[in-house]
Design brief:
398 residues; mainly alpha; 19 helices; Dolichyl pyrophosphate Glc1Man9GlcNAc2 alpha-1,3-glucosyltransferase isoform X6
Length: 398
Amino acid sequence: MAALRVATGAGNWFSALALGVTLLKCLLIPTYHSTDFEVHRNWLAITHSLPISQWYYEATSEWTLDYPPFFAWFEYALSHVAKYFDQEMLNVHNLNYSSSRTLLFQRFSVIFTDALFVYAVYECCKCIEGKKAGKELTEKPKFILSVLLLWNFGLLIVDHIHFQYNGFLSGLMLLSIARLFQKRHMEGAFLFAVLLHFKHIYLYVAPAYGIYLLRSYCFTANKPEPTASSLFPTLPFQEGPLPCILGSKLLGVVQCFGQSAVRHRLLSVGKAGDASIFLILTTTGHYSLFPLLFTAPELPIKILLMLLFTIYSISSLKTLFRKEKPLFNWMETFYLLGLGPLEVFCEFVFPFTSWKLKYPFIPLLLTSVYCAVGITYAWFRLYVSVLSDPPVGKTKKQ
């Protein structure tokens, strides 16, 4: 807290948060990594040692290059730094190659490219009005949103333990949204197009982008620019493209949740109802990532990090909306508390039962079903909110 007060006094609290999480990422370097580590090492080798015409046809490894062209060029650029760490990692025939220098390079490549994510979070936070700002720094919406994004539990374990580059990609997404919110539509559209050429999974956000850009940029001749509240009237920011785009994002939450959960934090700091949906969604979604880290040394890490993040999320948003109704009803509280016994059974009880050898899939099955219920419930609640609440314009007139 002392360090936080010093940073606050100097006006650098955001830098302190970014630096703190970067140090934590560095501490996670020696942890377990998944087969995605070898996937990206192989892509480094393919793009570095083969001509462009062979990038998408090379099949020495089962982990063929299957991302869009911009990500291939991204790997190509990284490979020219990688050669100064360990040239052997860039040999296509060195399947499952690993060394201490390779580990350091790949881990630091994720940490370094997260700089874009940090910048995008900063830009998004500038778009938030301080209508609910408290006297204390820790009660301000910008501070809460910054913590929820920068210290995102899902990104920490998926990118910096399991190993992927979702922070970099999420940074492109957030920066695109920030530019639209700032009415810099061409930049926002360009950044989103770039994102699609990095990872095709973001295509399901494209319809929201198309609708918003048509209404707010293409068809606005001498007319006041329509706000996203006319499309998604119940989402928290009430003005601009952010609700429209993130609303569509939230509706697609059942797919690839672990990779996209970070952007849902933007929904939570403007309206109590959305904060409630966010907390159910993010807590359930984060717990659904637990099976990704199945080794014993990572068990205390994932439990501790999720507890810290979840406790902060709930307490900070309860403080932000303390004058409104409780964020959870009894059923939601009971469901979220049920994650505790589920974890105890999966990690500490099931391994000692006779079912472990015959039915080893039971913990994963229970986790998947239980989390699917929570995610589907949050999705349903959002639909009800969007379809039942009156438009913002009508509410203000009344």
